[in-house]
């Protein structure tokens, strides 16, 4: 089963192709989106050993020359130094505006390569081949690119849409359980903020997720991307409703920054914790019932998602430090923290008028 989703934004239209074991056909799918007969593929050592030969062969078969760039894609390397390394490599190899940059990897590679594509020669062609659940359902869609700084996550970046996204769920079988679970917080987020039917479907079919049923995973990626595309179409550059996609992220980004982006808490885990924190605040604000939170917590526990801040991080933090980290988030406006809270499953809202004593209580409870 192969599904194609058309994404339309005010500035660009492109397709997301979703299937099982389709990565070896990357050249065939990409050919009509190329402007020249040369591509640069950016990936890491592991993905090179697993998939790069198949992908290169598929491009060569269609008369395309492939250059490879192997990088360290840890979260700590998602920075301006890596941008310098990539842009220098491209310019030394005489990249031109008709060439295509391909991101083969998870969210770090996708965000980094997308940003490099947006600034090299003021913009070159860009294709995403996301290799994690998180990147397939979230970061590869919608055109957000960027890098981290010591002051916060994704504070330097641009909006730059890809020409094509190729999502192969077969790749997910090569990931360890933690990596797959890391993406699930971004999946259920769509149900919580805008799609109650999807939320209920996820809870009903959790066994298929645990078993990594291929058709189920294709459906998860398709439905997640379809929900995100609806919002991106209305608000490409996050002027208003696109911020809803950040449910749990302001809390989660603070956790990541305070943890110095170490792997003891990966992005999806931080977002999962952040979602529960946002729901707890929604409850204290009188918007949702405790039953909703309990249902989501039980679901997270069943499939194995971490939902607590690790002890080794908590013991060095206090509420003030946490709020200070949240205050560095790019969604802060007029020195006010903006959060995404919920009125019910499928209905979220953006606010900066919550009671700060309630936010402090939520943070304190999670740090105890």
SSE arrangement:
Layout: E1 3-8, E2 13-19, H1 26-30, E3 38-43, H2 45-60, E4 65-70, H3 80-92, E5 100-105, H4 107-119, E6 125-130, H5 133-139, E7 144-149, E8 152-159, E9 164-168, H6 177-194, H7 196-204, H8 206-210, H9 214-234, H10 249-258, H11 267-284, H12 290-303, H13 311-314, H14 319-326, E10 339-344, E11 347-351, H15 356-367
Parallel strand pairs: 2-9, 3-4, 3-5, 5-6, 6-9
Antiparallel strand pairs: 1-2, 7-8, 10-11
Helix pairs in contact: 3-4, 5-6, 5-9, 6-7, 6-9, 6-11, 10-11, 10-14, 11-12, 11-15
How many β-strands, per DSSP?
A: 11
Widest sheet: strand order? 1-2-9-6-5-3-4
Mean pLDDT: 92
Number of helices: 15
> What portion of residues is helical?
40-55%
Fourth-tier CATH superfamily name of the largest domain: Dehydroquinate synthase-like - alpha domain
The CATH class of the largest domain turns out to be Mainly Alpha
CATH topology of the largest domain: Dehydroquinate synthase-like, alpha domain
Percent of residues in β-strands = 15-25%
Counted up, domains total 2
Q: What are the segments in which pLDDT stays under 50 over at least 5 consecutive residues? A: none
Distance between the termini: 47 Å
Shape: globular
Q: Radius of gyration from the CA trace?
A: 20 Å
Biggest β-sheet description? 7 strands, mixed
Known CATH architecture of the largest domain:
Up-down Bundle
The quaternary organization reads as single chain
């Amino acid at each position: 089963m192969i599904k194609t989703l058309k994404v339309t934004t005010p500035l660009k239209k492109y397709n997301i192709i979703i299937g099982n074991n389709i990565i070896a056909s990357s050249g065939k799918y990409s050919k009509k989106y190329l402007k020249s007969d040369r591509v640069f593929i950016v990936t890491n050592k592991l993905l090179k050993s697993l998939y790069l030969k198949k992908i290169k062969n598929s491009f060569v078969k269609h008369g395309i020359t492939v250059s490879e760039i192997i990088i360290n894609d840890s979260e700590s390397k998602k920075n301006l130094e890596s941008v310098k390394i990539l842009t220098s490599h491209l310019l030394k190899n005489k990249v031109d505006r008709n060439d295509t940059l391909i991101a083969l990897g998870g969210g770090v590679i996708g965000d980094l390569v997308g940003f490099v594509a947006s600034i090299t020669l003021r913009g070159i062609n860009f294709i995403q081949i996301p290799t994690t659940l998180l990147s397939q359902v979230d970061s590869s869609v919608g055109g957000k690119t960027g890098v981290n700084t010591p002051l916060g996550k994704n504070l330097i970046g641009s909006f730059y849409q890809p020409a094509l996204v190729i999502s192969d769920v077969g790749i997910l079988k090569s990931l360890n359980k933690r990596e797959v679970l890391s993406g699930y917080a971004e999946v259920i987020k769509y149900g919580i903020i805008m799609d109650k039917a999807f939320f209920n479907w996820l809870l009903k079919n959790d066994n298929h997720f645990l078993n990594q049923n291929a058709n189920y995973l294709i459906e998860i990626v398709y439905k997640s991307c379809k929900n995100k595309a609806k919002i991106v179409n209305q608000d490409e550059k996050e002027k208003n409703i696109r911020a809803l996609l950040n449910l749990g992220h302001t809390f989660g980004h603070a956790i990541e920054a305070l943890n110095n982006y170490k792997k003891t808490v990966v992005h999806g885990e931080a977002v999962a914790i952040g979602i529960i924190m946002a729901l707890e605040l929604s409850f204290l604000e009188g918007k949702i019932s405790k039953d909703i939170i309990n249902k989501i917590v039980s679901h997270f526990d069943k499939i194995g998602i971490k939902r607590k801040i690790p002890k080794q991080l908590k013991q060095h933090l206090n509420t003030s430090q946490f709020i200070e980290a949240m205050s560095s988030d790019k969604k802060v406006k007029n020195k006010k923290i903006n959060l995404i809270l919920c009125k019910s499953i499928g209905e979220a809202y953006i606010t900066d008028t919550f009671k700060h004593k309630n936010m402090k209580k939520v943070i304190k409870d999670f740090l105890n």
